[in-house]
Amino acid sequence: MVSGLTDRCTTLLASVFVALNVTSFQAFAEEPPLGELIDHHIDAALVERNIPAAERSSDAEFLRRVTLDLTGTIPDSATAREFIESSDPQKREKLIDQLLSSDEFATQMAVVFDVTLMERRPDNYVTTPEWRNYLAQSFAENKLLNQLIAEILGADGVDEKLRPAAKFYLDRAVEKDVLVRDIGRLFLGIDLQCAQCHDHPDIDDYLHQHYHGLSVFVAGSKTFKQPDGKFVLQEVVMREVEFASVFDPETTKKTGPRLLDALMEIPDFPEGEEYVEKPSRTVRSVPKFSLRKLLAERLPQDETPEFARNMANRLWAMMMGRGIVHPLDMHHSANPPSHPELLSALGQNLAASKYDIKSFLRGVCLSNTYQRSSLIPNKAIAEQLPADSFAVANMKGLSPEQLFESLLVSTQARALLEKQIDDAIAEESAATTEANAEAEKSDDDKTKEERNKHRSAKVAEFVTVFGSVPGQPEGEFAASLPQALFLANSETVSDWVPAGSGNLTERLVEMDDPAAIAEELFLSVLSRIPEAEETQLVMEQLGSSDADRPKTVAALVWSLLASAEFRLNH
Amino acid sequence: MNFDPSCSSTAHLVSRRSMLSNMLAGAAGVGALGQLVHPLVAKEIEAKKKQVLIFLLNGGLSQFESFDPKPNTDTGGPFRSISTAVPGIHFSELMPYTAQISDKLAVVRSMFAEKVPGSHGGAREYVVTGRPPQQGPYPWIGPVYSKLLADNVDLPGNIHITPSRWGPRQDAAFLGPRHASLVLSGGKPPLNVDRPTLFDKELDDTRYKLRQIADLRFSQRRRTAYTEAYQSSYDQAAQLIRQKELFDVTKESEKDQLRYGSHDVGRHCLMARRLLEKGVTCVKVTHNNYDSHMENFNFHLEQLGEFDQPFATLMQDLDDRGMLDSTLVMLVTEFGRTPTIQPDNGRDHWPPNWSVVLGGCGIQTGGVLGATNDNGTEIVDRPVHVGEMFHTYLRAVGLDPTATHQVGGNKVPIGAPERSAVEELLS
Q1: Residue partners of B94: CB distance under 8 A and separation at least 6
Q2: Regions of chain B where pLDDT drops below 70
Q3: What φ, ψ does residue B191 adopt, rounded to 5°?
Q4: Which of A480, A506, A535 to mutate to test the interface with B (most CBs of B within 10 A)?
Q5: Shortest CB distance from A559 goes to which of B192, B210, B231?
Q6: A478 closest CB neighbour out of B177, B234, B241
Q7: Do A19 and A141 lie in a common domain?
Q8: Buried b (16+ CB within 10 A) or exposed e, B286-319
Q9: Domain containing A408: what range?
Q10: Which domains does chain B show, CATH number per domain?
Q11: Is residue A225 situated within a structural domain?
């Protein structure tokens, strides 16, 4: 197969990725570690712009942040206490390594990639649990990022093992325009939607031919219903598409498959010999040469530097609360990166590591930039510390999943949740006793599945209230009235607060010393030791009457759960 | 080839994410103190303030069985037309009560939109944002009113009464969650307004106070955009909980409850009256089940049989109270239904022409604008695009649809810039 970077354009997008070429990857071996590299670029810009940087985060702040970012939950009180009290000078580094190798890391990354790639679309042909399992497994075995994306872009849904990877195509119903837009946005960091009908009117870099060149890869693909009822992808032969600007409908142009300016050459088969399986109503059509496979082979590779750049920017944003290019899918010359050299370096680093996501995140976590406090430095004014300077840690809202897990950890309500699930199952089975008697034998699997279903339903409540609109990217933190009402009054949350089943409130009520109660309360909910004034406030509240203590403690627990400090990753 | 000629360059700037700073700014500016509506203040608001009542008939109301009847034609179906309060204007016989108040209405029989998405959701979005949904997301009309008419009011500016369960939607797009619809699913109060039994009144106050103290400490040395928005959401929650009898329609007189009827849409119309009387800026009432691909006639008989009387009653009540002078009423649906009647008596989706009804504030009532041909297959007079109607809805209450929303650093035209208001409808 002949292919190549035939007419890569050097004038338009060049400024952003000029440093990304094969020779620079070789030079990379002598580069300093990623963390130092990040600090070098960020600090140089701070000096240049005369912006003061925040101090290093406290141990408690760092522990909570990195645990949320890498494992999707806050640390429990014992972990928090141990970390804060530890005098090991290497403790942050050790913590990072421990979190990166945990099962929870894989689960958290599965959620992040699910939400990024599927944007909370309703399930269609591949269920979210199947898909998340596939992703989690991939992250657990540290599958290289380019391989993961190649699997997703090359998936046809036929191979059982890789079927979940086809969710990206199948649950978009293999609709060409949706796919072109989302492949551009999510994998290349550019939103070509407005180049669908003409060259982009406002963004000089986005050309009409970019859109249609990308569309060639997926234009021949559509769904096929197998005899067993399962939907998979099939493909008809496609070599090029014709397009004309709406401003000049008479002049039609053609393009073959192209990744932005890189036009791909594709093999030519004699007429009548293009197919392994010819298109028909009853058989899945399979061409000898698949353009989707070509996309999978060529997009997530060094030759398409937009891929590494986009992935580096997205991972950076996940950790730092904001992309170096922001919004994440608006990479173009009129929206330049805040730190162009750093973005190039991050892309190179990711590519040089062969797209090893753990090593990339480890580097980010070790940087001083990531480890800065969210506290505004003394005498500085918040408005003078722009979010894109990374002078101060940018705060992030907890995702619905992070919030759910963190509430469970802080209130120590796992037992209560299990009880809620038991009750729900009992209620259901009371309604269907007969059906149950029969199914009693294959109990274990069934119960597990059922419990998972109920658990997912609880998480789904959080997604409805705190998540983004289906089909749209997760936005920045936005507080709303229904969210406040949910945290204040919903049964789901308020059932976990009052003393019972060994939860936090019960444990605190059983303690005598008010100062110890305050400390355990703050460690459990906010993952830090209370300040003297806060201890004082707790003691005043607990004050006079022992009889009211369970209720008073519950009010204290809730007040911290509902605080901005809990709701935000800071 | 798939293109959209109305894709204008401003649309390209409207990335929801670039607008977030604006959302936060909007969410932050909420007053923390005071009752939601003090009776005297409410009176004052009423005197000055414009309000809006939206009826959304979900599924696609048939124009044939409502406001554009074509009896005795191949497309007209079995129902007769009846005369109305305005000589010369006829409605379907399924709307006898509405016919009696036709003098309070302006009927547009020539609504259309091009390239309407096949889905109900997409078509609905077109109608309530005035823009093709492919360009969106743009804020729905309710959040736009909330933003432009009720930005500094403590009461939720935009309440949606719906028979079905309807989770919180971010229908405010870049205007931010502060202006998103507060949803009364099943016409019930918003979810989670009752405090858990665990906390009595006193302890409830305590927990909110402690929460606020925690936030004050936390926000002292942090960027305030997030923390202010967060505090504001709890202020709104506390106020709403204090005022939850606002949502208790049983507080209305028994006589009124009887007049409006005991079915959902009757109760919901009475609730709408109650909310408008209490000063809520924009109230939307949804009525479902107009998607009559089969049995169109039975469906419309049933649905309009429910809807007709409470709708007319509400219009009359608003008029009697002098509220129609300051309250715009609109009755919209996502598209019309096909002239062709399917073998199973169904009518399918039909975006080439349908009917919309306006009344109240700023509208020239008692007339019909536009016309379709004899059997309703096409528009023959004054086509009116959904984008033009969006401009009209705003002009009617004294707003300028050609002005812009300030979104982050960008200015986004409030109404689609290539459209303008329908002057013939405005008084």
Answers
A1: B65, B66, B79, B300, B301, B304, B305, B308
A2: 1-48, 152, 154, 165-169, 408-409
A3: -60, 150
A4: A480
A5: B210
A6: B177
A7: no
A8: bbeebbbbeebbebbeebbebbbbbbbbbbbbbb
A9: 400-434+444-569
A10: 9-425 (3.40.720)
A11: yes
The reported pLDDT for the residue numbered A293 is: 97
The reply to whether A306 falls in a domain is no
In B, which residues are within 8 Å of A489 by CB distance?
A: 192-196, 241
Strands B51-57, B327-333: pairing is parallel
pLDDT at A203 over 80: no
**Rounded distance, CA A368 to CA A389, Å?**
14
Q: Dihedral sign for Cα A179, A181, A185, A188, please.
A: positive
In the structure encoding, which two tokens stand for residue A251, read together? 């002049």
Give chain A positions within 8 Å (CB) of B215: 563-565
Q: Are A478 and B229 in contact (CB < 8 Å)?
A: yes
pLDDT in tens, A316-357: 999 999 999 998 988 888 889 999 999 999 999 999 999 999
State whether A410 and A500 are in the same domain: yes
Q: What whole-number percentage of chain A has pLDDT above 70? A: 91
Answer yes or no: is pLDDT of A88 > 80. Answer: yes
Mutation target among A563, A565, A568, A570 for the B interface, most CBs of B within 10 A:
A563
Verify whether the Cβ–Cβ distance B16 to A472 is below 8 Å. yes
Using pLDDT thresholds of 50, 70 and 90, give the confidence band for residue A434.
Answer: low
Q: Within this chain, do residues A208 and A72 fall inside the same structural domain, yes or no?
A: no
User: Would A305 be classed as within a structural domain?
Assistant: no
Q: Which of A298, A320, A349 is the last residue of a domain?
A: A298
Q: Which of A137, A148, A56 lies closest to A370, judged by CA? A: A56
Residue B286 CA from chain centroid, whole number:
8
Structure tokens at A427: 């209620």
Is the predicted pLDDT of residue A19 greater than 50, yes or no?
no
Chain B: give the shortest CA distance to residue A285, in Å: 24
Indicate the residue of A202, A246, A382 with minimum beta-carbon distance to B3. A246
Q: Are residues A384 and A285 in the same domain?
A: no
User: CB–CB of B195 and A489 under 8 A?
Assistant: yes
The residue among A378 and B53 whose pLDDT is bigger is B53
Residue B219 burial (CB count, 10 A): 17
Cross-strand partners of B379: B372
CA distance A445 to chain B (A): 32
Residue A278 lies in a domain: yes
Residues A209 and A273 in one domain: yes
Q: Tell me: do A355 and A407 sit in the same domain.
A: no
Q: What are phi and psi of B183, to 5 degrees?
A: -100, 130
Flag if A488 and B237 touch (Cβ within 8 Å): yes
Looking at this predicted complex, what is its ipTM?
0.88
User: Which among A181, A485, A537 is the top mutation candidate for probing chain B, defined by the most B β-carbons within 10 Å of its own β-carbon?
Assistant: A485
8 Å CB contact of B211 and A197:
no
Q: What is the pLDDT, as a whole number, of residue B169?
A: 62
Q: Which chain B residue lies closest to A494 (C-alpha atoms)?
A: B196
Q: With 90 as the cut, is the pLDDT of residue A545 above it?
A: no
Q: Judge: B198–A469 Cβ closer than 8 Å, yes or no.
A: no
Q: Which residue has the higher pLDDT, A9 or B122?
A: B122
State the nearest Cα–Cα gap between A269 and chain B, in angstroms.
26
Nearest CA in chain B to A483: B233
Q: CB under 8 Å to B314, separation ≥6 — which residues?
A: B53, B260, B269, B270, B272, B273
Look at residues A270, A298, A326 and tell me which one is the last residue of a structural domain.
A298
Same domain, A92 and A131: no
One domain, residues A58 and A206: no
Which amino acid, one-letter code, is at A212?
H
Residues in chain A within 8 Å Cβ distance of B132: none
Nearest to B113 by CA among B124, B121, B98: B124
Q: How many structural domains comprise chain A?
A: 3
